[in-house]
Design goal:
The structure is a homotetramer of 296-residue chains.
Chain A: H1 19-24, E1 29-32, H2 36-48, E2 52-55, H3 65-72, E3 86-87, H4 90-93, E4 102-104, H5 108-122, E5 132-138, H6 153-156, E6 161-163, H7 171-178, E7 185-191, E8 198-205, H8 212-222, E9 229-231, E10 249-256, E11 261-268, H9 276-287
Helix pairs in contact in A: 5-7
């Protein structure tokens, strides 16, 4: 029991964020929490130095330079790594993550959307002709830490607003992972005046469904071996308090059998399951630790 | 310039909320901000005493006892007044409000929804087969002032949750006013951790539309004489700060011409345009005042 | 009833913020909501052009260049105007404001502090040897609109912190107006995670007092002709909701007769009584309008 | 890795809160998070059944029935246990807690106040004649979970208010532990619109002090062996984010050597160091675990 250092200070050692320093320290894996344009340069340099990389930016999530150019409005400068990058959503790419050299950690919005939508697509439970609506809401930390008028306290408190309507750069991750065409998927991002958490309300018309219990059954079967998915009873929906600070994704479903209208609600913490702790989940897989190590 | 009374006190005179007291005072109109089950008894008593009534509850908004029974889960005890009640949405019932004895002030959610949806239905701009999704979010004041765990500060702050999914009692007001069938309309209510304001994100597939400008043009034409509707430029969406404390409804539209996906966003203050100030707007019409009196 | 312009737009005419433009338009008075270093240059230019000025910065509040240098850490570049400037607290300088050419609108914190403390000093009700503590809390708008990490939503929400402890630049305005020596006055500013409002909790030892009623009586007597001061019953304290958006200052007092410990609480809205609406109050006095015009 | 139960449900076993059930299960210690009037009855019953008790209410914190009657406005019904109860502030009663049968877990406000004030009293660094002011602010969870108008979201958000001015029932815990007379200590509690956290701003006149560094040195010396106290550099003050969800108490100090005015700021999380995790800290001591077990 020794005395702590000055409050607000830390004596944790740091090293420069360079391939040389990382090599010298003998690190086998780095997390990059850098902007896409930085990750595009830094990740290949780390990889060339023999270090495995989990990149939290969007740099390596999409599979083609065309897609990257369209959604990020910039040219990809390391296209040679796109094919090797593994999309780090363990629930769907658990077999490929352990051997990956470069893991592209998923975006926060697509994580909730894919975990909610993909099982229903796979089960043929969605009338795709009628389209899927994903109305997404995120806490302000999703916008990053850099000060801006848009994220300043007085603009956000007692307010609510939509942004990137139909045009958010996370959309292609849902199309890619859940196998949807853009015309089938309407997505709006919105800012909740809270620190952390994403709630997505997803609307579709059911196919081969009789009741919300059927949706719940699909989720339970698909996720029965998953440690971080929790399914609500039919008719109930999750909230953000239940997932704050955790690696859980909570799902709930409501269904009107008479008209076929369906709503599923997905909740995650954008800073953990939507970013940092899912990256740790991938690291656990990559380094041979128990997948839930440090996460449960 | 005289000295104010004690802070926190008021010397405004009050009278009992009875037909007799109201008659004795010679009032010609009363506002009822009482629960539906109270309004059902009190409004007829006031009306029988010759006093006009603007009722802010849901008691007289629906036209049939069957509908009331379904959505309110109770028997209507004054069905004789349902036919006479005028739905107090001035933008659509301005001709009937001045002569009304009983005005049923609209619900907060339907006000935003109808002002956004009805012009597009009337213009044939919505592919109704694909359905309309209305993802609605409200500040906590929408739940009333009575203390409950659900609306206590610690449950609400840093949280976000959906309720009454597909089953909110305000739904029939949208069906009735915009002329939709229930199977065409999916509605979810959600609680924003703020005091006041409603934002609704409405999704549909466009018909006979080329761009968001077309939607804006429909709104501008329909509402060109309306003092309380403000239309954003194509591609822009309103937020809640802009309508807080006002009688405005702000509308914005986004459209993807290639796929036909459309999103419109409507913003009102649930306590004013969604309740009190719209009631005053109706009162102005009923008593022959300028419609914007005290509201602009 | 004409159609409104685009939501979010305005067609209010603007003119350049220069003496020439102001003269050309024939304006007789301008409000400057500029930083102190800008006001120091701009106000004299406006005054030289024959325009009266209400300056909302700290540029002309202190009476000496030495004081300015100490608290603002900068040299005053227009010292010739310090003597002419009138401190725009109508409750104490009502006689001088009507004839003033330059009014220095008070700081938000000193407005609440002076309105609470000065009457008690004047009445000899404070044991000054024991000192006065003013623990002040402000909404985030008090920090201005410029984005910074300190005022970004995620830093402020669910947080509370003190700043400028014993060293806030508003302190000299309290010393000057209430006639205190610095050693008698301890002041700490703190950030509340809200948009607007200042609450100050002021501690002292009473002199010649028996009960909270005595404090209330002093306030009521002193402010009996004031339209914007509201005094709570003995033992009660104001909150911020009651003053939000108003020009009121609410005061409350608690006293323990046995030990002489006293607490008074003052509440204002920092954006109105602490800034804009008090400036309008001064303008009303300067231009011969009713002092409460547009404010009650 | 097995499948989780329904989200929102739990399969953790519960037992009745009775001495019999507790005995049957062979429990050696119980935490009581019950109101004082319940704890007064329940704790003795548990103790008589041979179970040790950590009581989180105020029932056993004060040493005399007179004191209890004065501050809690009720008669103590188990006075025979007052002498045996150990006040569970490990930093000051670490020697007595391990052998205690009944630990009275301290109030949240006094925990921060005593940890900040007592070392300075012991060091003779406070001019007690001038008095100590403790301006305390707490998140809403400090008011308990029971719904009330006072703690409902719409009353609290964008508001700030003081309560129990000079009269809070936690005051005697500070007098008792720091050895102050009531006339020396002015305390006001205030409600911050946040979930959790207490920040106390404490004012006094220094004795035998030259600078803030002297105060910091006193804290560092006194708490050098304490795992849960963190001291800021002179001139810096803690905020609530740094202590949220932790068992830490952070302290900071500012001093004006010329006038002797001193301010110290203490921050804790009222739900952890101010309640639950401090109770665990005491349990660790009582059961022979490492004191920081599960807390660091």
């Amino acid at each position: 029991m020794e005395h702590r250092s000055e409050a607000g200070e830390t004596d944790r050692p740091t090293i420069p964020c360079t391939p040389e320093a990382v090599q010298n320290e003998g690190l086998v894996l780095v997390f990059l929490a850098t902007p896409a344009e930085v990750s595009m340069e830094l990740a290949p340099a780390m990889l060339d130095a023999g270090v495995r990389v989990i990149d939290l930016s969007g740099a390596f999530r999409l599979r083609t330079v065309e897609n990257y150019a369209r959604w990020y409005g910039a040219q990809h400068t390391s296209p040679q790594w796109l094919a090797d990058a593994v999309y780090g959503l363990p629930e769907y790419f658990r077999n490929r993550i352990p051997g990956a050299r470069l893991v592209a950690n998923p975006g926060c919005y697509p994580t909730a959307a894919n975990l909610a939508i993909r099982p229903l697509i796979d089960a043929g439970a969605i009338d795709r002709l009628a389209g899927i609506v994903c109305d997404a809401k995120s806490g302000v930390s999703g916008a990053g830490r850099k000060p801006s008028l848009k994220t300043s306290f007085c603009e956000v408190t007692e307010n609510f607003s939509a942004y990137s309507i139909l045009n958010h750069r996370h959309v292609p991750e849902v199309l890619m992972t859940s196998g949807l065409d853009e015309c089938e998927f309407s997505f709006t991002a919105q800012l909740i005046p809270i620190h952390r958490g994403i709630l997505e309300t997803i609307y579709f018309r059911g196919k081969n469904l009789n009741s919300a219990e059927d949706i719940v059954a699909i989720y339970k079967e698909r996720y029965k071996a998953e440690p971080f998915l929790r399914i609500h009873k039919a008719g109930n929906a999750p909230d953000l308090h239940a997932v704050a600070g955790t690696n859980f994704c909570d799902l709930g479903a409501v269904y009107d059998g008479r008209t076929g209208r369906a709503v599923v609600v997905a909740a995650i913490d954008n800073l953990t399951k939507g970013a940092a702790s899912m990256a740790v989940q991938s690291m656990n897989l990559m380094l041979g630790f128990a997948e839930t190590e440090a996460l449960l």
